[in-house]
Amino acid sequence: MAGCLGLTYSEFDNIVGPRLLYCYPTDAISRSNFEVLSDYVIVGKHLCGKVIAIKTEALQYINYPVAIDNIKYERNSLLYSFGFILTKDTKKEPFEPLLKKISTLFLTLELDREYLFNEVTKSRIQILIEVIYKQLIENNEVFVEVDSGSFLAMKLFASPILPPIVSDYDVPILRYKTEYLLTLPWDLSIKHFLGFIDGITYVKKLSSSYSGNKVYADTDESTNEIDMGMDKNCIKRCLRVLMLYNCVLISDILQFSNIYYLDENTPSRIENDTSNIMLREIQLFCASDPCNLPVLEQIVKILLNVRPGCTLKYIIEKYLNPSDLSGIDLRKLLAIAQEKKLIYRMHEYPHFIGKIEQLDPSRVNPSTINVLKHLDGKECLDSICCKFEMSHQDVIDMPSVIIVYK
């Protein structure tokens, strides 16, 4: 368990204030460093029952303060806190449930058996946090007897890599057949959504916020109305769940005006893929017919002919033969090649270089002016077209607009 430096137990002392009673390893945090953090270790009752994280230049400290009210305690309350000492760059999220479990277990023991009120049983905490720390370091899990009939069992799980934010213009492509995915225990929203993923339709068009205007002119985008009955945010949440479980691939909208460029390491990666593991995965994914796979040489030829400054249409007409594309779903090929960082999309960023106040209102309608206000060169053309439901050419033809590629 890399990143964990120690485990602590602290209490509020009526004479000295917040006090570090037990720590393992004993030198994990110095008394002077604890004093700096002490105002965030023993806190007011309004902050108890919450994970509190503090970062210093040297370390990160997370703790879970607890308050118990009873007249048997001095000042009628017991304030205590267990905490983890972590390195500065360690993710704290995996430790939060462990911290809550330890703290709430001792809350139960105190309410039932006065475990912390009794100095004899409280003194065992030093041994317990040592055992907890060592088991976490060695096995990433803990199973220890705290008291007669009371056990602490917990496991440290790594934080999942959260999927990226989904944009309105993203196109979801299923990695597996819909029939198979529908057999898995998804919630009703995801099961309903799965049937509408066709690998062509982008997020906004799938949602109920789509007005029905055709956004892109040079694609084979379906003109059929789509009525899922789901709003855009719900669709994006569903997609992120599917991405988390590696069931869906996010791609851009296939347009023959798209420009891609080859990663400089792609030729060597293909050459070093002696067992063709990567290429066979691409081959299976992009095959138009799973029973009639394209040859690997076709895939390699298409990828190695991707070059900056050339549109997809130009590459197909100039460098490829019809037979090179036979049996290949070009949309899927480009999608998985981008996921594997073999190629990248070169996006277009429209930038209005004129001044709104200098435009003639009699020649430029208000809707055009509204679009021009958003053309600051920071938002890609796909996003602009999707937001205002316009074609690429409509945006490019607007007055005083230049296109920056990056």
Report on the biggest sheet: 5 strands, antiparallel
Task: Write the CATH fold name of the largest domain.
Answer: Beta-Lactamase
* Cα-based radius of gyration, to the nearest Å: 30 Å
What is the mean pLDDT? 90
What is the count of distinct domains?
4
| End-to-end gap | 41 Å
Order of helices and strands: EEHEEEHHHEEEHHHHEEHHHHHEEHHHE
Q: By helix and strand content, what is the structural category?
A: alpha+beta
Main sheet strand line-up:
2-1-5-4-3
Q: What is the level-2 CATH architecture name of the largest domain?
A: 2-Layer Sandwich
Query: What is the count of β-strands?
Result: 13
Helix content: 25-40%
**Fraction of residues in β-strands:** 15-25%
What does this structure look like?
It contains 16 helices and 13 strands. It has four domains: 4-155, Beta-Lactamase (2-Layer Sandwich); 171-251, no CATH class; 259-346, no CATH class; 348-405, no CATH class. Helix 10 (277-286) packs antiparallel against helix 13 (330-339). The relative contact order is 0.08. The strands form five sheets. A five-stranded antiparallel β-sheet has the order 2-1-5-4-3, sandwiched between helices. A two-stranded antiparallel ribbon has the order 6-7. A two-stranded antiparallel ribbon has the order 8-9. The chain is elongated, with a radius of gyration of 30 Å. With 406 residues, the protein is of the alpha+beta class.
